[in-house]
Amino acid sequence: MSNADQESWSRVKEHLRTEVGDDVYSSWFARMDLEAIEEGAVRLSVPTRFLKSWIQSHYAERVLACWQAQEDKVTRVELIVRSAVLKSTILPKAKPDLATENGGRYTNGHGIGRALSVGDPSVHEALGGSPLDPRLTFDTFVVGRSNTLAQAAAKQVAGAKRSDPVMFNPLYIHSGVGLGKTHLLQAVTWAGNAAGERKVLYLTAEKFMYGFVSALRTQTALAFKEALRGIGVLVIDDLQFLQGKSTQAEFCHTLNALIDAGRQVVIASDRPPSDLESLDDRVRSRLAGGLVVEMAALGEELRLEILKARVMAARAHHPAFDVPLPVLGYIAKTVTHNGRDLEGALNRLLAHNKLTGHAVTLEMAEREVRDLIRPQEPKRVKIEDIQRVVARQYNVSRSDLLSSRRTANVVRPRQVAMYLAKTLTLRSLPEIGRRFGGRDHTTVLHAVRKIEGLVGNDMALAEEIEILKRQLQE
Ligand code: ADP
Ligand code: MG
């Protein structure tokens, strides 16, 4: 390609940018390259099929016009997908060379993992999905009491056929950190795409905000519908990070469009829909209208099973790695936090074992995981529980607490409950107000200050509150 061609290309890009604006330009054209100019035909490449079809259907004429403004000999613009680039960007964690060596199966580069067989991952990439970890599949997800329902629902969604009626929509999974939400959501994506029935798109809320939405925003309503048509299942992880009024409007729009079109939506978040404070009521109720499942903390039994599964997986790569059952039992008992810490604990034993050659013993485990053993995590207290316990203690009903009644026998318990909600949960004042019958945040603030002031002088009240706290945290 000549320098003159390159210079024309630079001018074409500038021209395009001024025509469509910076946002649109960077969404669609930033990764477009000039491949060749031959006999009036310009060949341009983009990294994904999705970009290609989007540019073709929305900007083909514009791009051609920009070229013709520079070079009148140009009569045609051809768009191709750069497949080599595509391969190396699909799955940063997978090794493409292995993919061909073992016939389409690939393993990840981590110590702990196993070969998987999945559908064409480029489908996922072409739609602009977030990267997937090949280890996070249904096969590696251990089922126990705390996650049975979530796992079953996720499996149902992943295996559903296009013609099946949608059973629950959206499927909304919530839990504390490290309890397997991302694992389940990615499992749905892998399994769904491997089945090939419906395209499954996995997006973190962040990716949704900065990729998907900004791309959609530049399009017409019609184009938006067209983009959604390609998606059978939309999976959004960490919804609590969705921020900004206009992003939320887009989210609401997407959610409604998909659900109304009978497409499946799957969501994970660290809190229930009712606690997503920044979302408006309609979205919250739409989110709560499907199936909402909470995953509880991993029980000791489940932790032990996860550890056993991890050791087995590790042994595929490190056959000499052996962890005696009492050591696993010890870790399961003491490292109580979450799946991530369990993994961390095992990785340390593995590293120690590999580097020093010493066998894994209870003594070594005690030393290695000492800092992962933390005092019992404070229990997540729910506002409903606070209302229930306070109502019982003061012998009023929960609806009294939420009502607008101002008689003394309700006012004080209500203030106590609001005070506890503020001190025992991470909820904001407006959220607490809403959960107490739609009160203003200043009312909540007043209640909190009031009780704070009283407990300093009123021993009996201070004692009452201590008892309530203890009941709630047990
Ligand atoms: P979350 O998204 O809820 O914060 P993750 O899905 O990232 O949690 O899980 C944290 C770690 O724990 C991951 O390595 C995950 O594979 C593991 N994990 C959690 N629950 C399970 C489970 N039931 N079976 C196997 N691994 C699990
Ligand atoms: Mg997660």
What do you see in this structure?
The chain has helices at 3-20, 22-29, 49-70, 83-90, 96-101, 121-126, 148-159, 181-195, 205-217, 221-229, 245-260, 281-288, 300-317, 325-334, 339-356, 362-368, 383-394, 398-402, 408-424, 429-435, 441-457, 459-473, and strands at 33-38, 41-46, 76-81, 171-174, 200-204, 233-237, 264-269, 291-294. Helix 13 (300-317) packs across helix 14 (325-334) and helix 13 (300-317) runs parallel beside helix 15 (339-356). Helix content is 56%, strand content 9%. The longest helix is centred in the N-terminal third of the chain and has 22 residues, at 49-70. With 474 residues, it is of the alpha/beta class. Strand 1 and strand 2 (41-46) form a beta hairpin. It has 22 helices and eight strands. The strands form two sheets. It has a five-stranded parallel beta sheet, sandwiched between helices. It is globular, with a radius of gyration of 28 Å. It binds adenosine-5'-diphosphate and magnesium ion. Residues 136, 140-142, 147, 175, 177-183, 306, 339-340, 343 line the site of adenosine-5'-diphosphate.
